[in-house]
Automatic annotation (TrEMBL), chain A:
Pfam families hit by this protein: ETF (PF01012)
Domain Electron transfer flavoprotein alpha/beta-subunit N-terminal, chain residue ranges per copy: 22-218
Cofactor(s) recorded in Swiss-Prot or TrEMBL: FAD
UniProt keyword Flavoprotein present: no
Keywords: Electron transport, Transport
Superkingdom of the source species: Bacteria
Lineage start: Bacteria, Bacillati, Actinomycetota, Actinomycetes, Propionibacteriales
Protein name per UniProt: Electron transfer flavoprotein subunit beta
Organism: Nocardioides pinisoli
Automatic annotation (TrEMBL), chain B:
Keywords, comma-separated and alphabetical: Electron transport, FAD, Flavoprotein, Transport
PROSITE patterns named among the record's database cross-references: ETF_ALPHA
Name this protein carries in UniProt: Electron transfer flavoprotein subunit alpha/FixB family protein
InterPro entries hit by this protein: DHS-like_NAD/FAD-binding_dom, ETF_a/b_N, ETF_a/FixB, ETF_alpha_N, ETF_asu_C, ETF_asu_C_CS, Rossmann-like_a/b/a_fold
PANTHER family according to UniProt: ELECTRON TRANSFER FLAVOPROTEIN ALPHA, ELECTRON TRANSFER FLAVOPROTEIN SUBUNIT ALPHA, MITOCHONDRIAL
Limits of the Electron transfer flavoprotein alpha/beta-subunit N-terminal domain: 4-187
């Protein structure tokens, strides 16, 4: 059995994230890393393997992104994934949901043909665009059951059950492998790479694929053929400094309520 | 005028406020046609409500074949409805589930998708608030039928007369769409307070509550507010995950957000930074949350909030 875990390389949320002149995200000038929420996906993939002692299971980390995005795959290899795939091609830059999900789906299909793809694990959202749509779109394109936003994952044989928090309810979702799974940050803390893991990662196979390797043409993806177009981006003006009072002998409550009343909240 | 499909947000036929916001927005793009996934018996009652906000038609899609499976059947039904009606746009309330429906629908229709819009103007230009609220983005769908998911509180609902003509729509759901089964559903118990994402006022508590949410809840109730929590409070088991505000919880955009004992981490900000007015109570004057506030009190929430609650009650009489 082979598990594919999709990991995205994103600009560091604590750095000064910004847009380029063509309104695409600056993915080169700002330090990047493996999207924190995808660490939970790697963790669940590894746990799936570890819980099934005696079964032959491998984990392949897959990313689509610029040169530096290979760092996201490396981190997954350090955590314990067995092999990595980095899809990189200038033509992919600026892809929207449709373009990104297409490239990912083609890459999963190629991995499937080579080593199998019995389980595809994603994070609940990227930490930059935070769409939370790519896993569902992957399931649509791959024709696999969509089992997404899991806070708890359980499996037995080829049956997988998850707990999913919906808007007004909690649901249990069940499906039969192969599936596309996405997991939330409630699913369990992700492990840190060990020293041994970091050393071992250097020897693990890591492939680089272009669009051609996936049988895609440059005019099928990327900014120029996007289904959506960004017309403008604006940095939010800095908030004007608010009034800050220090509570002394109960003065804080009075000042707070006066403020709320002045704004007509009471 | 072309139809604009608006997916109704409801719980067992109780129409929720974001539906009226979407119908208001839809009128900028064409003639609103509401889509009700639910029991046909409730169709007429739902139509009575949505026609007051300009719905010319109400497509009732019996969800008997749909609700037992995750996401995929809804996307199929909407595809069939869109192919029949050729709408000018499709609007959905921005919930996790609807975003996934929209994603699959975008592939099926070969159409562009914009998620989490906080505004949609005439001509279909959307506004998104991104990077934890530090940027706004103006974007447009350029290919296919624009599919747009819209966040709660993106427009003030405005009434308008609509015909509200009920039309039942029979969707055909394929077997591939029925592969992720809803094995069990447990509705969340109502707190009796406003819904977190829809509320005009949200009062939240963090690690600084030390696990005692009574001051936060008391203050919330005096203001008629919803209660929220930071992840630290949720991870400590003090509040259920459904109350979490932030990157991996709910995004809220109320008129007033009151953060109590919350430091203001970037992941928390991502869920509340677009609130109109922000207030914080925190005993640390250096807490980053104070960078965001319109008004802040440096003090202990366990004394400030109960006193403030009393004062609010006095004023309200
Ligand atoms: C601020 C902003 C707003 C955007 N809004 C839109 C929009 O409204 N419409 C639109 O069509 N596009 C939009 N985009 C572009 C879109 O975000 C990209 O196509 C992006 O690559 C995929 O979306 P996501 O990051 O939101 O993924 P999500 O759906 O949040 O990702 C979920 C999971 O999918 C997997 N995944 C996603 N991307 C990759 C990847 N490159 N490599 C490996 N795994 C991956 C990961 O497991 C991840 O956890 C936006 C981009 C930005 C920066
Ligand atoms: C991938 C990821 C996703 C995340 N998603 C979210 C999310 O969705 N939402 C979220 O909130 N966080 C999220 N976090 C966590 C986030 O980084 C912070 O750890 C969290 O928001 C901290 O919660 P807090 O402010 O309650 O606690 P702390 O940071 O510990 O702050 C507690 C504050 O309370 C104050 N305080 C203490 N006692 C009192 C008192 N008696 N009276 C008044 N003030 C007092 C302190 O001065 C301090 O400022 C995420 C983190 C990661 C890595």
């Amino acid at each position: 059995m082979n598990i594919v875990v999709c990991v995205k390389y994103v600009p560091d949320a604590t750095a000064d994230r910004r847009f380029e002149d063509d309104f695409t995200v600056d993915r080169v000038g700002v330090d990047g890393l493996l999207s924190e929420l995808d660490e939970y996906a790697v963790e669940q993939a590894l746990q799936f393997r570890e819980k099934r002692e005696g079964e032959e299971i491998t984990v392949t980390a897959l990313t689509v992104g610029p040169e530096k995005a290979v760092d996201a795959v490396r981190k997954a290899l350090q955590m314990g994934a067995d092999s990595g795939v980095h899809v990189v091609d200038d033509a992919i830059a600026g892809s929207d949901y449709l373009g990104t999900s297409l490239v990912l789906a083609k890459a999963v299909e190629k991995i499937k043909a080579d080593t199998g793809a019995d389980l595809v694990v994603c994070g609940m959202a990227s930490t930059d665009a935070a769409g939370s749509v790519v896993p569902a779109m992957l399931a649509e394109r791959l024709g696999m059951p969509q089992v997404t936003l899991a806070s708890v994952v359980e499996s037995q044989g080829d049956q997988v059950r998850i707990k999913r928090d919906n808007e007004g309810s909690t649901e249990v979702i069940g499906a039969t492998l192969p599936i596309v799974l996405s997991v939330t940050d409630q699913s369990g803390e992700a492990r840190y790479p060990s020293f041994k893991g970091i050393m071992a990662a250097k020897k693990k196979p890591l492939e680089t694929w272009s669009l051609t390797d996936l049988g895609l043409d440059a005019d099928q993806v990327g900014l120029s053929v996007a289904y959506t177009q960004v017309e403008d981006t604006t940095a939010r003006p800095p908030r004007t400094a608010g009034e800050i009072v220090t509570d002394e002998d109960g003065s804080g409550a009075g000042a707070l309520v006066d403020f709320l009343a002045s704004k007509k909240f009471i | 005028m072309s139809e604009v499909l608006v997916v109704i947000d409801h719980a067992e036929g109780e129409v929720k406020k974001p539906t009226y916001e979407l119908l208001t927005i839809a009128r900028r793009l064409g003639e609103p046609a509401a889509v009700f996934f639910g029991s046909p018996e409730q169709g007429d009652a739902v139509a009575e409500k949505v026609k007051k906000y300009g719905a010319a038609k109400v497509y009732v899609v019996d969800d008997a074949q749909i609700k037992g499976y995750l996401v995929a059947p809804k996307a199929e039904a909407l595809q069939q409805l869109a192919e029949k009606t050729g709408p000018a746009a499709i609007l959905l309330p921005s919930t996790f589930e609807n975003k996934e429906v929209a994603g699959r629908l975008a592939i099926k229709l070969g159409s562009g998708l914009i998620t989490d819009a906080v505004d949609v103007q005439e001509g279909g230009v959307t506004t998104q608030s991104v990077f934890a609220g530090n940027y706004t983005v103006q974007a447009k769908v350029t290919t296919g039928t624009p599919i747009i998911t819209v966040k709660p509180n993106s427009a003030a609902p405005e009434e308008a007369d609509g015909a509200g003509a009920v039309e039942s729509f029979a969707a055909t759901i394929s077997d591939v769409a029925k592969t992720a089964q809803v094995v069990a559903t447990q509705p969340r118990q109502s707190t009796g307070r406003p819904e977190l994402t829809e509320a005009a006022i949200v009062v939240s508590g963090g690690r600084g509550t030390g696990g005692d949410f009574a001051p936060v809840e008391g203050f919330a109730d005096s203001l008629g507010a919803a209660v929220g929590a930071s992840r630290a409070a949720v991870d400590s088991g003090w509040m259920p995950h459904a109350f979490q505000v932030g990157q991996t919880g709910k995004t809220v955009s109320p008129q007033l957000y009151v953060a109590n004992g919350i430091s203001g981490a970037i992941q928390h900000r991502a869920g509340m930074q677009t609130s109109k007015t922000i207030v914080a109570v925190n005993k640390d004057p250096e807490a980053p949350i104070f960078e965001l506030v319109d008004f802040g009190v440096v003090g202990d929430l366990h004394t400030v909030l109960p006193a403030a609650t009393e004062k609010v009650k006095e004023r309200k009489g």
